[in-house]
C-alpha cells in the first residue's frame, strides 16, 4: 500500500506504507488512515528525524568495516540505502512546510 503526504508548500511525497510508518513513528506520530503533522509540531518532528539520520549514519559507519570488499573468497556486499536517502523527500517536505507555516497531511 502507498501513502501520500501532502502540504501546500511542497509536491506530494508518495512512499510505501512500511517506510511511511517508520518515518512517522520517528517524528512521534502513528500512521493511521488519516493524519497530520501540524505546523506547530514541525520543529520537533524535523529535529527528531535529523537526529535519527545522524544516529543511522554513525551506525552505518561503524558497520562498514565488517564488509570484506576486495578480499579473496568474499563477495562484494553493497550497503543498503540509509535513512538519510530514504527520508530525504519527507524531510524536505517537513522543512518546506515549516518555512511556510503549513501542516503536513496524509490520507486526504
From TrEMBL:
Superkingdom to which the source organism belongs: Bacteria
Classification via Pfam families: DUF1840 (PF08895)
UniProt-listed InterPro entries: DUF1840
Protein name per Swiss-Prot or TrEMBL: DUF1840 domain-containing protein
Source organism of this protein record: Trinickia violacea
Amino acid at each position: 500500500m502507498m501513502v501520500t503526504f501532502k502540504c501546500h508548500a511542497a509536491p506530494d511525497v508518495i512512499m510505501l506504507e512500511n517506510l511511511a510508518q517508520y518515518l512517522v513513528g520517528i517524528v512521534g506520530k502513528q500512521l493511521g488512515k488519516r493524519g497530520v503533522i501540524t505546523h506547530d509540531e514541525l520543529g520537533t518532528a524535523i529535529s527528531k528525524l535529523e537526529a535519527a539520520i545522524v544516529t543511522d549514519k554513525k551506525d552505518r559507519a561503524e558497520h562498514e568495516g565488517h564488509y570484506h570488499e576486495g578480499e579473496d573468497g568474499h563477495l562484494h556486499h553493497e550497503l543498503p540505502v540509509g535513512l538519510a536517502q530514504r527520508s530525504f523527500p519527507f524531510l524536505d517536505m517537513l522543512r518546506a512546510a515549516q518555512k511556510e507555516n503549513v501542516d503536513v497531511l496524509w490520507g486526504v
